[in-house]
Amino acid sequence: MTDIRFALAQIDTCVGDLDSNAGKIMRYVRRAAQQGAQVVVFPEMTLTGYPIEDLALRATFRKAAWNKANWLATELAADGLGDLFVVVGTVGTDRETSKPRNRLVVLHDGVVWDGYDKHFLPNYGVFDEFRIFSPGNKSMVLDVNGARIGVAICEDIWQDGGPVAELAEQHIDLLLTMNGSPYEEGKTDTRLDLAVRRAAEVNAPMVYLNQVGGQDDLVFDGGSFVVDADGTLLERSPMFMEDLSFFDLDTTAERQKAGSIAAKPDPDEEVYTACVLGLKDYMAKNHFKGVCLGLSGGIDSALVAAMAADAVGGANVYGISMPSMYSSDGSKDDAADLAKNIGAHYDIQPIEPLFVSFQKQLDLEGVAAENLQARIRGVIVMAYSNSKGLLAVATGNKSELACGYSTIYGDAVGGYAPIKDLLKTRVWEISRWRNKAAAAGMGIGGLHVVGNEQGLAGTPLPDGVMIPVNSIEKAPSAELRPGQKDSDSLPEYELLDQVLAMYIEHAHGREDLLADGFDETTVDTVMRLVDRAEWKRRQYPLGPKVTALAFGRDRRLPITNAFRE
Amino acid sequence: MTDIRFALAQIDTCVGDLDSNAGKIMRYVRRAAQQGAQVVVFPEMTLTGYPIEDLALRATFRKAAWNKANWLATELAADGLGDLFVVVGTVGTDRETSKPRNRLVVLHDGVVWDGYDKHFLPNYGVFDEFRIFSPGNKSMVLDVNGARIGVAICEDIWQDGGPVAELAEQHIDLLLTMNGSPYEEGKTDTRLDLAVRRAAEVNAPMVYLNQVGGQDDLVFDGGSFVVDADGTLLERSPMFMEDLSFFDLDTTAERQKAGSIAAKPDPDEEVYTACVLGLKDYMAKNHFKGVCLGLSGGIDSALVAAMAADAVGGANVYGISMPSMYSSDGSKDDAADLAKNIGAHYDIQPIEPLFVSFQKQLDLEGVAAENLQARIRGVIVMAYSNSKGLLAVATGNKSELACGYSTIYGDAVGGYAPIKDLLKTRVWEISRWRNKAAAAGMGIGGLHVVGNEQGLAGTPLPDGVMIPVNSIEKAPSAELRPGQKDSDSLPEYELLDQVLAMYIEHAHGREDLLADGFDETTVDTVMRLVDRAEWKRRQYPLGPKVTALAFGRDRRLPITNAFRE
Fold first, then answer.
1. Alpha carbon of residue B86 to chain centroid
2. ipTM score above 0.85
3. Please, which residues 464-483 of chain A have a Cβ atom closer than 8 Å to chain B?
4. How distant, in Å, are the alpha carbons of B56, B367, B404, B413 from that of B396?
5. Which of B183, B219, B372 is closest, CB to CB, to A383?
6. What pLDDT, on a 0 to 100 scale, did the predictor assign at position A363?
7. Superfamily of structural domain B270-484
8. So where does ATP get bound (chains A, B) (predicted)?
9. Which are the contacts of B197, defined by CB distance < 8 A and separation ≥ 6?
10. Does B237 belong to an annotated binding site?
11. Average pLDDT of the residues of chain A
């Protein structure tokens, strides 16, 4: 019997931060070695962070990454860890074309083994890989003490053919995959189904190692796992946390032994946790210690404030109530209650005097006057951001954004919008889940996410309630004119969200939507709103391209890029 | 001798506006037929507009485009124009994969001939084609009265091999190319050099037909041309205007006869015109009749206002002077002079009372107080935009944007930023050029651009001056604190712009920049500013992805998209 111990190092990296990523790799390899691992596998593009977008095109960055990989191999050997096979992702350079490559290398015996280049380069949805990388064209089998370990990177297993099909012919003992697979509702099962198929194809167990953490507008959920050749789930790491798990491969056994299998969170918890981790990592990687946001008493800002408190603690949340002449007393009370529940700073900045000053000069009416209120609030939120060094967070939800039911440069200001991908009906569901968790004892910061590995219960909530029930249950209103209700301008959210899901996510056209059973008035209303909003949403300054390299579409640079040339 | 007359229909289309694009095609074919053309060639993706980005992925859109092409073929035949070969671009569908294709079709005899699919799909810089289209793999030779016409689409001629290499073996009489090639300084010569090479490769004359007009953040410059097999330039259409030119192919002659060759504008005129056309078309395609902007008396807002007047006339420009306690009298006078010169509306909205109201509540200091002034101005500009239905234009230049020397949600507000791709030193050069043109008699709107085909002298300028000389010559200042100068925070622009060009456009790293001869302090200052600004620039709300299709990176939708499903 040949036993090989694999360590699954599910870590959170930062794009461009070669030093910190390399340091983390070192620490995890040491821990893995202490527990007897012979192979340590890390996520896709571990050393560089992922996705690095057009940063890959800078030769200075590729050179720095190459130097750092060599430094790491040398350090590991100097530490007496040269015997281990440390499988990390990085950026390489195609010698023929000088184009970057998405590369897996093996650090062993003090040397960087020039390894395997990703074959299938996704170029859809959030992915731009074909834009920046040239595809690899050779499969690779790694010999570890006589065991044959085939490797693949992320998209390589999502497409038929290519390296996995080649490996199927090569009698491998295990398929080792490193991934940078962003979170999406329901994706845990999709990935598992896929892995089961690939394990059967190569007739060997398969390791699926995924990245964890927020990077710009993506959240990677981890949830790494191992399946046996027959599809049995042998091991699963937790979601949303860094983790080091182990898998012992017995190359002589017909079937492998199962280890520990982390439970899947329920769907509401999963989404809430993804949003919190996205915000927490966006702040950490951009060096923000606190957030500021407007608290209206409505459900959107209440949920976002709750998420912020769970991410960085209530003491680092600055809630600003900015009542106008149209704000109800109920709204002001709800905002104050929320702030008290989460232990946030709470300031009241009435906008009426400011509105009056502007109106003396501008004398606006209708929508222009409504937008003015929202923009005064935007100025106040940004003033807190600038003067206290806080991240302004925007509180818009997906239904609102889809329909353009928000004010550009007004309530839409901020560097991160935690719930921008949640439809309004989902906002209510998630809020109810968080209150249920509070009632069950989960305090502030009690979530299992990166940076909170102990799984603390969190700071207790005063009455076991987080989000005021009134914020969840009252009829939504922008409160920009007397008696205003969202339903004056929009279909009821229960209906609206269904149409939006079909129109936006399923690309249904007008005829399809009618065939889906929606009535003509609703369909035409929603389509008109969305078309108009698509256009409003992109009202941030565009400009003509004149030189070889303008800003904007010419370069896709990562945001939380820590690389310094 | 066989003579075939080609009409080069250099038109301006609108993304998604199938009706209007088809109508324009009809009008140009009629005009071409009246002048004896047998073949009429239009730009890349004529019918759909270009670039259509992810709109191509919507099946409803592809179906509508297909129906419109058929309608057009039928209408042309009904009009007695069925004998012509009308070569238009559209979106097709790959029958095997159901993916969209970038397609050239020939309308003839009342039928849409399913033609040629673009082979090379650019996926760099501003291009995303490999993301959305599947590549064609067959070359095509069209038989027109016995003459063999090879075809290619844009990138097909920029890459070696592929369809042009195939056509080189096929003894063609002419290479016909349709293009959607965005403007860039110096590209006229690059395109000509390329065409000369390809004409030699296929040993035949080559037609290069380019799109014209602004589309979102791109400007297409037209400048279509014909070169002979030996590289002689035979024909050139004007830049920045719609045009219908002709080329008579003599298939029996060794060399072709030259026609009319439009002169190239000088480099400053070219850039100025590109910026004006970009703004003019952005307004037209988004249905804006006028613009509003802050007029500070500085050169950036003066140049942008001049461009706006040239685009839509001074009467449609609303200049707003928003002096603070730090604004000099000179600045106010310069702003007023500029507005008078271009015949713009001119309002004065002092921000001091508003600033005082905010400060009573917020009591800000330092940069936060400076940003507050810029944001109050942003609120005022957007109030004009909302209440009068005007496009807010942002006045930032590339040096300023690169260094983050502007206020997000402040002076950076607006839907279009005409000079965002001009370095500050270029802003001065271009402004001087415009004044020279004014002195030489070019009034407001006197540029040769789409929608102004007559090449009018324009509305006379009162004293033959457009931009106040003082705005060009004084030391730049943001005037956000007493005595402030740009040079307090930034290196002198002459030096700064040189470093920016190497760092941003040539991707030079720190070592390269030192080797370029820049001193260490300057290099470190500029790199720090740019790194910080990259990050600031992208402070518009990002958010985590939760569902299969979020907003943001998941979808790349065109802005001026007129398609209604």
1. 26
2. yes
3. none
4. 33, 18, 10, 10
5. B372
6. 97
7. HUPs (3.40.50.620)
8. 294-301, 395
9. none
10. no
11. 92
Cis preceding-peptide flag for B51 (omega within 30 of 0): yes
What is the distance between the alpha carbons of residues A477 and A404, in angstroms, rounded to a whole number? 15
Numbered ranges of CATH 3.60.110.10 in chain B: 3-263
Residues of chain B with CATH 1.10.10.1510: 491-565
Phi, psi of B53 (to 5 degrees): 50, -140
pLDDT at residue A277 above 70?
Answer: yes
Banded pLDDT at A540 (limits 50, 70, 90)? low
Whether the per-residue pLDDT at A348 is higher than 80: the answer is yes
**Nearest beta carbon to residue A545 from set B126, B282, B361:** B126
**CB-based contact, A51 to chain B, within 8 Å:** no
Chain B within 8 Å of A387 (Cβ-Cβ)? Answer: yes
Q: Which two tokens stand for residue B245?
A: 């030119």
Name the least confident of A441-455, B58-72, B311-325, B381-395: A441-455
In CATH, the number for domain A3-263 is 3.60.110.10
Residues of B whose CB is below 8 A from A368: 383, 386-387
Collapsing DSSP to helix, strand or coil, B103 comes out as strand
Nearest to B267 by CA among B189, B336, B181: B189
Residue type at B274?
A
Q: Tell me: the pLDDT tens digits for A217-226?
A: 899 999 999 9
pLDDT digits (tens, 9 = 90+) for B386-432: 999 999 999 999 999 888 888 989 988 888 899 989 999 999 999 99
Catalytic center residues of A: 44, 118, 154
Task: Give burial (CB, 10 Å; 0-12/13-18/19+) of B464.
Answer: middle
Beta-bridged to residue A444, according to DSSP, are A459
Mean pLDDT of B346-358: 97
Shortest distance, CA B229 to any CA of chain A (angstroms): 29
Closest by CA position to B42, among listed B66, B6, B11, B63:
B11
Q: Does A549 touch chain B (CB under 8 A)?
A: yes
DSSP designation for A213: E
User: The domain at B491-565 falls in which architecture?
Assistant: Orthogonal Bundle (1.10)
Location of each CATH 3.40.50.620 domain in chain A: 269-487
Residue type, A316: N
- Would you say A464 is a known binding-site residue? no
Peptide bond into A51 cis (omega under 30): yes
Q: Do B564 and A527 touch (CB under 8 A)?
A: yes
**What average pLDDT does range A13-42 have in this prediction?**
97
Please state the rounded mean pLDDT for residues B284-298: 94
Torsion over CA: B164, B165, B167, B173 (sign): positive
Q: Give catalytic residue positions of B.
A: 44, 118, 154
At residue A544 the predicted structure's pLDDT band, cuts being 50, 70 and 90, is confident
Confidence of residue A535 (pLDDT cuts 50, 70, 90): low
Residue intervals of chain B classified under CATH 3.40.50.620 are 270-484
Structure tokens at B382: 């957007």
Chain B residues with CB-CB distance to A182 below 8 A: 545
B123 touches chain A (CB under 8 A): yes
* A124 annotated to bind ligand: yes
Contact: A60, B550; criterion CB under 8 Å: no
pLDDT score recorded for residue B537: 54
CATH number (3.40.50.620, 3.40.50.300, 3.90.1150.10, 3.20.20.370) of A269-487 reads 3.40.50.620
- Please answer yes or no on whether B353 and A361 come within 8 Å at the CB atom: yes
Best mutation target among A240, A379, A513 (most B Cβ atoms within 10 Å) is: A379
Q: Which of A128, A450, A542 to mutate to test the interface with B (most CBs of B within 10 A)?
A: A542
Say whether B543 and A182 touch across the interface (CB within 8 A). Answer: no
CB contact under 8 A, A509 and B58: yes
